[in-house]
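Entry 12.
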Amino acid sequence: MTRYEDEEVGDNPLSIAFVKSYLKIDTDDDDLILQAIIDSVVSFAEAMTHRSLRMKTILAYPESFCDKLELRRKDVESIVDIKYIYGGTEYLLDEASYWLKRETISSYLMLSDGHTWPNIDREDSIQIRFTVSADAKLPQISIQMLKQIANLYENRGDDIISPESNANDINWYRNFQLPNF
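Predicted 3D structure (tokens):
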């Protein structure tokens, strides 16, 4: 089983200036609240659709090397580096040893001809750092995010957002949902 962590997350796909223009807000009074709403909605949309809506650097920690190591992301831009520990020493894997194969649902780290994966002597001793790009469906998803931001901003401070509105948001994002790994 491979464990994943987001190391760096790129800029938000919806800037505060763009959202303020959409909402027709002329002041900076609510910028902190608005930014919090934007961040929440983008994170929610990413979680609901299983898509990356901003450039990210991700760390993967597979248990071992294998001939076809699945990264479980279709949107892998590049492999930054692969580090492994053997005998208590950290090594950087030579880029010539592997190549990236992109398929419809996932990307795979493939062993180059004439190379072998290094030996490892314990679990959690492999770290693969890779970047993923923003999903191509971002323009369509952005419209829904703007609507959700408008609803949350308009109803800020209210204890309850209507259950119908929440259900509609969830159902809309499910239309763009990728398989969950």
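Annotation: The beta strands are 3-9, 56-61, 68-70, 76-86, 89-92, 98-102, 107-111, 126-132. The mean pLDDT is 86.
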